[in-house]
Amino acid sequence: MDVPRASWITVVIVCAVAAVLFALNGYTGYAITLVAVGLAAAVNLS
């Protein structure tokens, strides 16, 4: 696995974890934003 792909995977995972944590704490707007950022980062994986 090359470094750029690994870094994008890391960004997607961090966004997913942060989105779940924000959603559990009631910050739905931030959670939705993090999901959108994670999806945008996931585009770079293909």
Shape: elongated
Give the tally of β-strands.
0
Number of domains: 1
End-to-end Cα distance, whole Å, is: 13 Å
Main β-sheet, in a few words?
A: none
Q: Helix/strand/pairing class, anyone?
A: mainly alpha
Summarize the amount of helix as a percent range.
over 70%
Topology as a string of helices (H) and strands (E): HH
Number of helices: 2
Catalogue the unreliable spans.
none
Mean pLDDT: 96
Radius of gyration over C-alpha positions, nearest whole angstrom:
11 Å
Query: How large is the share of residues in beta strands?
Result: under 5%
How does this structure look, described?
With 46 residues, the chain is mainly α. It has one domain. Helix 1 runs antiparallel to helix 2. It is elongated and about 35 Å long. The model has no long low-confidence stretch (mean pLDDT 96).
